[in-house]
Amino acid sequence: MDKILLIDGSLGEGGGQILRTSLTLAMCLKIPITINNIRAGRPKPGLMRQHLACIYAAKEVCSAKVVNAELGSQSVTFIPGDITAGKFHFSVGSAGSTTLIFQTIFLALTQTNEISDVTFEGGTHNPFAPSYDYLIECFKPMVEKLGYKFDAHLENAGYYPAGGGLWRCRIYPKESSKVLSLTTREKIKKIHATVNISNLKHNIFEREKNVLKEQLDLRDNQITEKNLNSIRAGNAVGITIESGNAIEYVESLGAKGLAAEKVAREVAGKTREYIKNNTPVGEYLSDQLILPMLLGNDGEFVTSNISSHLKTNIDTANKVLKENKIYSKTLRIEQTNAKYKIICE
Amino acid sequence: MKTVVIGILGTVLDNRGQGKKRWERWRPTVSICQQEDVLIDRFELLLDKNSTRLAELIAKDIAVVSPSTKVNFHFIDFSNPWDFESVYGSLLDFARSYTFKPQRENYFVHITTGTHVAQICLYLLNEAHYLPGKLLQTSPPPRDRSAEGKYQIIDLDLSKYDQIASRFKKEHQEGTDYLKGGIETRNKQFNATIAQLEKVSIKSKEPILIMGPTGAGKSQLAKRVYELRKQRGGLTGELVEVNCATLRGDNAMSTLFGHKKGSYTGATTDRLGLLKQADGGLLFLDEIGELGLDEQAMLLHAIETKSYMPLGSDKPITSNFQIIAGTNKDLTLHVESGEFREDLLARIDLWTYYLPSLKERLEDLEPNIDYELERYSSKENSLVSFNTNARSKYLQFARSPQASWRGNFRDLNASIIRMATLSSGGRINEQVVTEEIARLQKKWQPNSNTVNHQKTQLEDLKQLIGDSAFEELDYFEQAKLCIVVDVCRSSSNMAEAGRILFNKSRETKASSNDSHRVKQLLAKYDLTFVQKK
Prior knowledge:
The complex is a heterodimer of chains A (345) and B (533). Helices cover 34% and strands 27% of the residues of chain A. Chain A contains 8 helices and 16 strands. A 4-stranded mixed beta sheet of chain A has the order 1-2-4-3. In chain A, a hairpin with a 3-residue loop joins strand 12 and strand 13 (247-253). Chain A is globular, with a radius of gyration of 20 Å. Chain A starts with a strand and ends with a strand. Chain B is of the alpha/beta class and 533 residues long. Chain B has 4 domains: 2-156, 3-Layer(aba) Sandwich (Rossmann fold); 165-353, P-loop containing nucleotide triphosphate hydrolases (Rossmann fold, 3-Layer(aba) Sandwich), CATH 3.40.50.300; 358-444, Orthogonal Bundle (Helicase, Ruva Protein, domain 3), CATH 1.10.8; 450-523, no CATH class. Chain B has helices at 28-32, 52-65, 84-97, 116-127, 162-173, 188-203, 218-232, 249-257, 274-277, 293-305, 331-336, 342-348, 365-380, 388-399, 408-422, 430-443, 448-465, 467-472, 475-490, 494-501, 505-508, 514-523, and strands at 2-8, 42-47, 70-75, 105-110, 134-139, 150-154, 208-211, 239-243, 282-286, 307-308, 317-318, 322-327, 351-354, 385-386, 427-428. In chain B, the strands form 4 sheets. Chain B has a 6-stranded mixed beta sheet, with helices on both faces. Chain B is extended and about 95 Å long. The chains are: A alpha/beta (345), B alpha/beta (533). Chain A binds chain B through residues 44, 48-50, 52, 71-72, 91-96, 121, 160-164, 199, 230-233, 255-257, and chain B through 20-21, 23-24, 33-39, 61, 64-69, 143-148.
């Protein structure tokens, strides 16, 4: 058996991101790993239900052997087998985010030669994870540029904390990879807002629309109302910003007791910030592009901010790459002015 | 380990309507299954059958927030949810009928739902270990921002709850039959003895003599007589216990009667003595047969006049004490051999009770096992019980001739404590019993003395049936015959001997003439039954 690679789970922001990144790399590169100090120093340390859901999903996708995958466990060992495409169904309780499970297994399933159909049940719009809309509006078109392809269809939105969302997706084998190059942002071509409403009065949409129109100078036809099926009430506002070479999607979630105007103002603020930064890749996309780039055909992109998530992702990936004989790549960060170039070569 | 929650369906808190708005409200039962750091494998939901519709909705919603949780319904009669007795009874019935697997499952008893009465009952049942595990309490989120709220776990096994527990224990012990220690004994003779002793204890202040083998419970009984006299007979002083076998020489005198400073070497201060200490109370002299003749004379004088002279003193002191004496010897034999004063025996031999050995009242074995278990449970604040197979295995051994119970109830007490300590999760299983039987067998193994005893028995048999007849028998048959002779000698008639000798085979016979079988058996060896004198 191969030597097991030890990963310190308390590195960087030390949360679930390091677990998901490690799992994806372990699956795709077929490296056995042990992650220690998982969520060390948190009030409730160790694995939570949503982390277990990711581990179980990863386990199923590549018939892995898993040791110590238990609630509260601070050390877990993951010994991957071969990734097999097929039909999968992942349910995550307590409104745990289905998009994070998707994030864990997506790249692995693109490494096979067959199509996979995956059904997700659980949360789709959670406060601490990219929403389903984000996956479709931003992640999907961006990774398509690198040769990764998936289609998805949402049946029910699952809002935190009830969950109950349901969506299906089809993941295709990776096509010949292209080198990523996103060093400057081209001119912004289109801004479009989507207001998701589930089981709430129509006037929520009106109130949010009014704020968006005022704050972002949008016209009526740039704002769409979407009524999503859901077991509970929910509201999410997202803005798609499309430039010549990149797409960003910023979003804000409504919550009980939070005024609709505030939700709209928050997302408008995020939009203005992205536009002002004048970089092609936003904060969330930056950490999600690392692995597709690494497992694809290298490349580089520029972003305005190195978040702790991004830093953790880069460090974890480098650590795994260093131990791996097949890949002789590294990720590095170059800073110029207030911009950061992430280079994979 | 699986995680199992036992909780009552909250007909108010869990009932937030059928509409989608219910998801924005805190529902304790659902909220348990929404916690990020707890995964509930099974939810045992207790409900009244009138709430089935609500329960179905709750189960459906639990399936959404926690797909892997299995919800089981248990219909409980909550027709009067504010009636303590009926709620406690219903919940106790549930607890007793539910198969707990503490080795494989962790239990949480949810106490946030149900009436206050039901919550108190759940607490009591958990505290008494009828519902094992820890208590689980859920609380609503601040301003209802996220409907999953919070939870707390309360482990009643932690020592900070001991105070509450011991108070409960005290209440529980009241009203039990004192002399028997609350043990429901079945042996008729023993029960009659105790019934009389109870009357005597209350009405009489005269000495009591308790006879019986070691470990039969003499000391226990003396303590209970003392408690009873204290409660009902106006005894004000303390109980002073002494084992006379430990009193030797000058020390014996001084221990009992006290001394003046300088009365003998080493007597550097005044000493009051146990008789004075028992003034107004009760003196229990165990193994009184071991007391020296001088002390016996002094004691007799003290019993009769309530006064005596301490060693080296010329002034008598008075002490109004009552006395209970214990012995495992036949004191009349000691009188014959001059080791015990006849007049003292006459004085203390007014109310004499014989405590049979455990072997002599095997029908009381089971209640005593229960008693010991309960005593251990209340001392350790943790319910301990046998599983069915383990219990029958232990009883079978305990009643068998192999179990000598040499140390009587002391052996039983130690045996139960060992098993209770080794039990896991309060259940004594077959493995624990098997190991305990091995321990007891080792403990009761005949030692070299018994081997010598066997030799003497064989010599004895040789004389009884004659040398030639003896030599013709196999060693194995000699040994068998020894037992027959032994049993016959200790039995008062042939029927009694037959019951002991044919204890198994007689059970399968429709009618068993025990005495005839003994007669035939003895006749084989030209022996006849001689009546015990």
